[in-house]
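Milestone M4 deliverable, item 7.
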Amino acid sequence: MMLTGKTALVTGGRGGIGRAIVARFIKEGATVFAADLTPGGSLSSDADDGSTFVKLDVTLEQDAINAMETVGAHAGKLDILVNAAGIEIEKTIEETTLEDWNRSFAVNATGTFLTSKYALPLMREAAKTGSSASLINFGSYDGFIADPGLAAYCATKGAVHALTRAMACDHGPEGIRVNAICPGYIDTPMLQSFFSGEGSGGAGGNIESLQQAVRDVHPLRTYGTPTDIANLVTWLASDEARYASGQLWVLDGGLSAQVQQMKL
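Output delivered:
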């Protein structure tokens, strides 16, 4: 097992991607804290996966402090932090209100900052055990290129990418590796909301045809699953990835490798 003896905390740990990461970590031998707003998270159902639920609103500094105190009291260290909590608002910059903008940054960027900030002392303790600690943020392929109607979301993910590189430089000497996963289209409640929404997703169209159109635009002719993301996250969390840091790992089925608008 790749993560035996390690302690992990996953924000958004009751959501689609977060829950897959939690389950894989447990399978690989880790002790896992699943942090989210509610035990059901975005899937609205409790998880019986062996993890410990921690109530965490990533936008609140005291919640971040409390979560790390819970981990510290249990394990005294934190080997792995995964910042998977996130939201998506489907609007252009003109349609985006200041409240929308601030909320997007509060969850996607400030939330990553707060949990990372208060996890660092515990991650330094983990690094003292002889293997590096691993901090994994969630960016997006939308931090490199842009889907229409996702202005604030794209901006937040660009911020996470820059923060990831900065943290990797600052904390690498302390034995803490920092990377970001940059997913493309992944089959989660957020994606299904995108298909049925009035922004850059459904706009009242037929959901089945939209789903197939999204599959077809990928070179691999499919979109990803939470398990695909969990596979890469698990490797980055493990000691096999001891030399991987400061990188933005795109996992999008080849989507961003091609010229999107070429029509023959």
